[in-house]
Amino acid sequence: MPELLSPESSQSQPAVPDYAALLRFLVEPFLESPAALKVDCEFHPARSRIWIRLAFESSDKGRVFGRGGRTIQAIRTVVEAAAQAVGHTVYLDIYGEREKSDSAKREMPRGRSSDNQRPTMRR
User: Fold this and answer.
1) Ranges in the chain, pLDDT < 50
2) Which residue intervals make up region (Disordered) (predicted)?
3) What is the DSSP code string of the chain?
4) Which domains does the chain have, with CATH numbers?
């Protein structure tokens, strides 16, 4: 049977959350290949700051971020709440494969040519 701590001792030393496990629990359901998820936590005890780096395949980016970034913001909120409960500050960085530049994906606006001339007026 596990040893139970008295209420006095548990209040003096709050349990430190397992940030890596918490993030895995929150993010893995959104991934097609959960094995590709990489979580790295760096703790600076002098300042009570936690830097968490999260990496996954770029094909899962849309599911993890969600519409308008709502899903990732909810994940950040849960992790920040866990950190605040023990007096920590959390920084969450998300890494992924860089996709081709956005300029290559964008189309030229209608009525403009590729040499940046003014649009022609239609009558």
Assistant:
1) 1-10, 100-108
2) 100-123
3) -PPPPPHHHHHHSPPPP-HHHHHHHHHGGG-S-GGG-EEEEEEETTTTEEEEEEE--GGGHHHHH-GGGHHHHHHHHHHHHHHHHTT-EEEEEEE-PPPSPHHHHPPPPTT--TT-PPPPPP-
4) 32-98 (3.30.300.20)
